[in-house]
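Input (RidA family protein):
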Amino acid sequence: MAKEIIHTDKAPAAIGAYSQAVKAGNTVYLSGQIPLDPATMTVVEGGFAAETHQMFKNLQAVCEAAGGSLDQIVKLNAFLTDLSNFGTFNEIMGQYFSQPFPARAAIGVASLPKGVQVEADAVMVLGE
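Output:
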């Protein structure tokens, strides 16, 4: 099966040896998104909530570049440097997704790239 590399300028450029997303068949594997402003490649200011909103906007941009939407995500992995922010994360996630919600894991980590507080990667399945 051929794989298609997904890229959009509406999300931060990859800062390592990876693609923003890879499509294989009707499944799209989205790399982790952190709260970088895609225009400046700098971390957004404003604390955890602002970072979470930007992270979801970046994830949404990659979904759209692949021909889908956040509502087609079937699995989301969220990485937080402080699990006491989980309630805020959950509330903000509810603003970007509709029921039925994707399967999800929330993982506490010691640190993330560029010192951000939140990152998420996902698997999206497009309609056939």
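Residues 47-65 form the longest helix (19 residues).
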